[in-house]
Amino acid sequence: MLDLPPVMLYRADGTTTAYSDVDASWTSSMSGASKHFVDSLIAGTQPDMDGELAIQTLQLAFGVYQASNERRPVDPSTIETAVSPPWWPIYPSKP
């Protein structure tokens, strides 16, 4: 999306380290996450992203939308329903 490496480490002293060799494609991340989840089910182990972390991740994303929509700070932990930007969906459903 930006002309930057997918991962950049910013230090307090102002220096940065760029990591360009990280696969940042959406397809790869979804494929890897799905594989990990299924492997965890088969192995009977806890996946890296449990239900609580998944909820917190959605609350953060929805909090960004809500803060933008309302032009005010939002505490992501207070989000209990889905929130979309005002322009979504791009193509409204037909009645």
Task: Label the structural class.
Answer: mainly alpha
Q: Main β-sheet, in a few words?
A: 2 strands, antiparallel
How many β-strands, per DSSP? 2
Order of helices and strands: EEHH
Return the average pLDDT rounded to an integer.
Answer: 89
**Poorly predicted ranges:** none
Helix segment count? 2
Radius of gyration: 18 Å
- What's the end-to-end separation, in Å? 34 Å
Strand order of the largest sheet: 1-2
Structure commentary:
Helix content is 40%, strand content 8%. It is mostly helical and 95 residues long. A two-stranded antiparallel sheet has the order 1-2. Strand 1 and strand 2 (16-19) form a beta hairpin. The protein starts with 6 loop residues before the first strand and ends in a 25-residue tail after the last helix. The model has no long low-confidence stretch (mean pLDDT 89).
Summarize the topology.
Blueprint: E1 7-10, E2 16-19, H1 26-43, H2 51-70
Antiparallel strand pairs: 1-2
